[in-house]
Amino acid sequence: MTRRLDELDALRGIALGMMLVSNFVSDLNFFGAMEVTGGSSWWWFSRLTAGLFVAVAGVAAFLASRKGDLRRALHRSLRLAGYAYAITLVTWLAIPQAFVRFGVLHLLALAGLVALSLRGREWLALPVGAACLLLPWLTLPGGEWLGLRGYDYTTVDYFPLNPWLGVFLLAYFAGSRAYANGRPRLSHEWPAALLWLGRHTLPIYLLHQPVIVGMLLLASAVSAGRLLP
């Protein structure tokens, strides 16, 4: 079992906090409470948030595979896939017009399997990641179930392979260079709350959207007078 790095947990906690804010704004946009247009500040904030979240996952994937058990890493990817398709099912039942086909957990589950195939050949993550990031061949009509489609359809969460698998793999490669010995790069006393967030990312991520959407639906019902005496 590899030792956790506080600096990575802190960065993951920051990324999670940013994602909570970003998803709240996205939900407000989806329900028509505000408008987020392409190229706006909130649009760029969501891209920055996603990039940080996926990049941290890429570095963590290298650290997990450096000395870890391959079976454990495979189990983690399969567990993420299970959560991902549970989200697909729940969103299909709740919001069939915009349900999740290939969200961030689908991406991370697939990326984890790709990372396993690169163990011992981490240098390959650089050209493969660059290709995923830059080349348009990863975008195909009707390929949203595999992350092979552009942002041209309605969904509440979508992380296509182009560019996000590229971001993951480039971060995986950077992690293999920055943390080749598995030791922290920074000597800093991180806030305990930030570390806690970084170490409980998955359950918080799984719970936050039902809470936010439930609050917005409740607020909508109250404003329409449906829950007033």
What does this structure look like?
- The protein has 229 residues and is mainly α.
- It has one domain.
- It is 66% helix and 0% strand.
- The chain has eight helices and no strands.
- It has helices at residues 6-30, 41-67, 70-94, 104-117, 125-134, 161-178, 192-199, 201-223.
- Helix 5 (125-134) packs antiparallel against helix 6.
- The longest helix is centred in the N-terminal third of the chain and has 27 residues, at 41-67.
Q: Quick gist of this model?
A:
The protein has 229 residues and is an all-alpha fold.
Defining key terms:
8 helices, 66% helix, 229 residues, mainly alpha
Low-confidence stretches: none
N to C succession of SSEs: HHHHHHHH
Mean pLDDT comes to 87
Question: Which bin fits the share of residues in helices?
Answer: 55-70%
Q: Provide the structure class.
A: mainly alpha
Total number of strands: 0
Number of domains: 1
Radius of gyration: 18 Å
Tell me the distance between the termini. 57 Å
Percent strand equals: under 5%
**Number of helical segments with 4 or more residues:** 8
Approximate shape: globular
Sheet of most strands? none
